[in-house]
Fold these 2 entries.
Entry 1:
Amino acid sequence: FLSPLDPLSDPATKDLYGKMLIITIPLLTFGGLALGYLIMVSRTSGESAYTARSVTPRFVVGATLAILGIFLVSVLAQFVTATDVAMVGVSLPAHAVGGPDAWPAGGGVFQVLQNGGFDPHVSEGPDNWNDGAWLSAGLLAAVLLTFVQMIAAVLGAVERLLVIIGPICLAAYALPATERVTNGWLKVLTAILVVRFAWTIAFILFSLEALPHIGPSGNPPTVGDMNALLGLAIGAAALMLGLPFVLLPAALSGRATFKLSR
């Protein structure tokens, strides 16, 4: 779940986007007709003529964004995904992290959780698991990681919602009075992408610290290594759990707006 949603590869999202676009296109058509009428009947000079002509570039940009919004989101998602995969591939050995579909729950700093269990009557690994540390620290790390996965599911649902309502939100840029709708849409999308990127950095940093404690079989060679891995897993899961609550408000409270230069 380090990778954002690519709407072009999700049939349900793409289908709903198309239906929303069918609703948006007639609105843009009527808006274009009304704008053309205002330009024709307005005086060649004065405030009314300036107002009608100043809205025209905004209307063109808003209509273009509304139609091509799904491609914009897809390009951003693919860029973040490619960057995340490249960062993990360059920073960590392939055998230590597995495939991208399993990140971050599989491999790296969380390999110890993937290989172990929580039944003290069942021996795990090379007979060197500390039952007390495993049942306390291991269970805590697994619970924290479960909450991270829940947050990732919520972010994925918000991403789908942003894509579906994208045509209307992006078309709102056509009018100065509704421009804040477009800015809000862009802020939420940017905030989610920032969280995904921050998760990747945290996963890489903690996985680098965990590499010396992982044996060739993926298990910790000694009890000390296992305890160190459990501590790193708790730290990574706790940090990844807290990042959305820090980054999302910071990104949403930003004052950056989408402006069209004259």
Entry 2:
Amino acid sequence: RHIKMIFTLALVFYSGQFCFGQEPVYRWGEPASNDFLERRIDKLLVLDEEGFVLLRKYTNETYTSFYWIESYSPELKLEETVPVEFNGGVMGNSYDIEDILVANGKIYAFVSHWDKSASKHTLSLNQLSLDGELKHLKNLDIIPAKKMGNRGFFNFVISENQKKLLLLSEQPFVKKTKEKMKLTCFDLDDLSIDWSYDHEFPIESSKALHHDIVIDNQGRAFIFKKHYNKGWYHYLYSYSADGKWQEYEVKGMDGLAVLDH
């Protein structure tokens, strides 16, 4: 009886090893070299049965960024490299790619535009093709600003189900005023606005701001804020489509600073 039990356990163990302990299957590409060492891999754009696509990026000494799209076959062979056709403009009328994100099988480029003559800072959404071409879709928001060094900033994120786009627009620094920002939730399918909300924090306006944002699949926004005033202070807020603004107490953080989360 004991021998039968030991044999049964051994058989179960061996079967488990066979089912769950198999070595992964590796696929090796042909030998290749990178002739442009300054072009670093920025992110993976596409991965499917037809291969994968990488985005490469190079930022020069003047903080100007250049992008390239690399397409690879299922056999891991580099098939094509195309530059992203983008003109950064000139001083006083400049354009910057803030980030490139993928959602619903589409590649989106978020482009900011500083126009000194019009005193405005604009963020637009563009669709990026694998040919490296940008197609303008919509201006998401405009921040009135007179100086490039104090033009506010934009922060954005896409929901997990890739249906919602949240944009945080931070207003420029103004002395002896409270910090102001605007939240806007877009439907990513047609870029219509689900809701928009302006808020003034009970904190002095500052140039050194820190906001991390998240939006859930129902369109509820969360803001994690870090603020320094002779020590670090942390705040957590939420806003939902029904107009409810809520603050959550962050406990046990006195004298500490969150570096990542």
